[in-house]
Amino acid sequence: MKQNNSLVNIKRRDIPLESAVEKTFLTALKKSPYGLKVRKMNGIGYRSWPDRLVLGPKKFFIFIELKRPILGKLSPGQIDLFAEMEDLGHQVPVFTDGNKAAAFVLAELDIHLHTRK
Predict the structure, then answer these.
(1) Out of 1, 24, 42, 85, which could bridge 90 as a Cys pair, Cβ 3.0 to 4.6 Å?
(2) Ramachandran region, residue 48 (left: φ > 0; alpha: ψ -120 to 50; beta: rest)
(3) The dihedral of CA 97, 103, 104, 109: what is its sign?
């Protein structure tokens, strides 16, 4: 029986790497007029942490996790840590599209700037 699934015909090499998603995300945020600071959350002691921390004006900050489309998934450590962070009131949105991630950050910043005094 022939399977009619569009994912069957996709080759791994045709799926953007996570690094390409991150590059798109960073490029989109650099175009913003807010002078955002974007830091990679890796290194010793940072296993399972979200990929990026974005800092902006008026004490704005947000964590972002970026994954490879279709193939990317959270590790068990990330699932646990992100749940702990959510319990502390910090969301960690996960994106497979750098432009959508950047649009989300800018929308959250807009809300933040218009609700803070």
Answers:
(1) 85
(2) left
(3) positive
The CA-based angle 97-98-100, given to 5 degrees, is 70
Instruction: Indicate the class that CATH gives domain 15-115.
Output: alpha beta
Q: Is the pLDDT of residue 117 over 70?
A: no
For residue 2, CA distances in Å to 8, 11, 20, 87 come to: 11, 18, 33, 45
The CA distance from 33 to 54, in Å, is 14
**33: how many CB neighbours lie within 10 A of its CB?**
5
Give the Cα separation of 88 and 3 in Å (integer).
44
E strand or H helix at 63, and its extent?
Answer: strand 60-66
